């Protein structure tokens, strides 16, 4: 602010930077208070925590293109005592994020390259839901989490790439692994991202494979979950407050993605792979 009391150019830049976070926090607070039973009700506080977790996870996941569910679940575990309800919430939010990000990369999608991933993911999605609904998933989560942490550590210490020709059968197997983790933890992107990163694909090509893949597989997973747990359509409709918050986080995250280099993008991916694996292990502990 200058001597006349007017805001100078630098002040206007700072205001523009502060406006989006302020609007986001205002949106989260308004939704929480609107749906709560009072200014300090337990339900409003819990919803605020859940919405903040969704926003932060959407922001980071939209930079790397994956790991929303692993990060958001760390906070939502304390809000949702029932695992299937938490997975349902994660799926709705993640589908919202993938719709936005997939629209941004649609022109770069090579459908013949994407198809094997999608076919494998669709075929394997019910397997993860069977584990979620009928079997204790702790052992599975520890195994997957350990694998992700180990890969991220090895790749960061000594980067390696598979400079092989594209093989649809291998891509379908990777997609199937993602389908299993989609049903189990609403997180189909970890294995495809790991595979694309190991193949040394540019960041734009990675996103053009992983974003639409995750969108399709998560929609299929949500449909199967509704089939496994019929009569819970009302619960699905009650999740609408998370949609605008997830969209705002996706918008800012993708904007950051466009400004970072491929090497920086690779670093972000490895960090989030390690974080995702650690969160899976902690969740199972």
Q: What is the overall number of helices?
A: 12
Low-confidence stretches: 11-15, 35-42
H-E string: HHHHHHHHHHHH
Structural class by secondary-structure content: mainly alpha
Strand content range: under 5%
What's the helical proportion of residues?
Answer: over 70%
Report the major sheet: none
Give me the Rg, rounded: 20 Å
Span between N and C termini?
A: 53 Å
**What does the average pLDDT come to?**
77
Principal-axis shape equals globular
Number of strands: 0
- Tally of structural domains: 1
Task: Summarize this structure briefly.
The chain has twelve helices and no strands. It is an all-alpha fold and 285 residues long.
Characterization of this structure:
The chain starts with 8 loop residues before the first helix and ends with a helix. Helices cover 79% and strands 0% of the residues. The protein has 285 residues and is mainly α. The relative contact order is 0.18.
Structural features:
285 residues, mainly alpha
Furnish the topology, listing elements before pairings.
Blueprint: H1 9-35, H2 42-64, H3 68-76, H4 83-105, H5 111-134, H6 138-157, H7 168-185, H8 190-198, H9 203-228, H10 233-237, H11 242-259, H12 262-284
